[in-house]
Amino acid sequence: MDEKERARVETRVCNVVAASACVERFTVTSATRLIEDAGMADSLDRVELCMDLEDEFNVVLDDREVMNALTVQQCVELVVEKLQAQAEKVRREQRMVEAQVNQPFGGVL
């Protein structure tokens, strides 16, 4: 993932955190602490954040990882990791399909 795409992910995560925490967007940066700065001390807040991030990025996150995240940056890293894993899975599947398409038919036509 290039830096431009990573920056877009960070912006979107900040937007999600701000909406989930009901705080002004300009107050949320990658350095924002989820509990101290965004007021997300309640475990229900974190579960909702996890679901909101999953919806925003169409990924499946581990609730425990989101619960353990202390900053917005850590949430960004979780999302980036999942997006990269998804992209790699798609690339593997594409290679498998290409390999199947390129296999000879053994003379049967």
From TrEMBL:
User: Which residue ranges does the record assign to the Carrier domain?
Assistant: 7-83
Q: Which GO terms describe its molecular function?
A: acyl binding; acyl carrier activity
- Which SUPFAM superfamilies does the record associate with it? ACP-like (SSF47336)
Q: Which UniProt keywords apply?
A: Coiled coil, Phosphopantetheine, Phosphoprotein
Pfam families named in the record: PP-binding (PF00550)
Q: Entry's Gene3D superfamilies?
A: ACP-like
Positions in coiled-coil regions:
73-100
PANTHER family in the record, alphabetically? ACYL CARRIER PROTEIN, CARRIER DOMAIN-CONTAINING PROTEIN
What is this protein's record name? Answer: Carrier domain-containing protein
Task: Say which species the protein is native to.
Answer: Rhodoferax koreensis
